[in-house]
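Quick note —
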Amino acid sequence: MKQVIFTSLLLVCLLNGSCVPSQHFDARLNSIVKPYLFSIAGWELRAIPQEMGQWLFGEKEKIDDKVQLVTEYFISIKRIKALKSEIEAANADNRDSVLAPLEEELNRLQEQKMALAGMVERIIEKQISDTLTQQGIFNPVIESKISFPPVNFKLEQLPCLLVISPRDRIESIREIILKPSLILEEKEDIEARVDELGVSSLVVRLGGIATYPTLVDSEASLRSTIDTTAEEWLHQYLAFKPLGFRYLLDLTGLSRNYEIATMNETIAGMVSKEIGSMVYEKYYSEYENGASQAPESEFDFNREMREIRKTVDAYLARGEIKQAEGFMEQKRRYLASKGYYIRKLNQAYFAFHGTYADKPAFISPISLELKELRNQSASLKDFLNTAAAMTSRQNLRDSIK
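Predicted structure written out below.
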């Protein structure tokens, strides 16, 4: 338990932002974001005692007959989203006569969702934990079959994240957690004021945060919830390994290393997707059978985003910052015409998305190298053990020769 609490406090420090060289910049930035800050420390102080009580006094869930409960929970989330859209449309059209039954159904489903959330969390935690055990992935600290840290997450509305990049290159130099309740006008006001400091900024919504317990978006789909929970647990696991420790140094600004950040994010993503697929196929393979498939489009969004990123990098390498920013705005409008709406496409956007191998903005060869290492590994456990022990990109290159 002490190790769990230590991990939480360490992650609290790193998630509250990183260091920047200019104290003047720091002071001005802090004055802008101070009214909107989200306190992870405060959230942890509320969450950890609740979770300790659950571990000590909670009853063990038998999940064999609870899969239907989980699927019903996520079906209700889909219906809640649809109801909100219907209510918004009814308000816009002044159709007051249909509002009452829609709002009544919405309130009922939201109450049901809140009542079931805790049980759904326990069920999915058990499913992921059992799958990790089956793969021989237990403990990052000692050779033991005792799982650590325990898989533990909370379904809640997630905070926002302010990402800051220099204008002359794509690199995240500061990430600050903001309140989840920000409206669009507040996000744009924060961005405009931060941009006046000579940087590129963007406020994004997070899918998960590797606090303890992990925070996972309460409006995500079932598959996304499973994958995100597994991925954030992998970040907690890796924090006790050489690779993850160096990633903590990068996040806190003590030792910046973009390649280490990319390796860490990519490994966590790769392993979590394999674990997520195992969980989903075992328990929920029939959940979305018969769901309508989106028609295939001739427009390749992923390829387009990678080409945009390459062009932006070329502009910035030549010092043509305004040309790069004009190009990104032009392409943002083009993507919108193809049905892909991105609120703001700038250096901060690519700095945030560029470390995730499954994102279109990712163009690093590190992903291919890690996939090659995975193909050479005898098992998922072997791949994770090998990758987690690395301390540099050169280690990765050497391991696949």
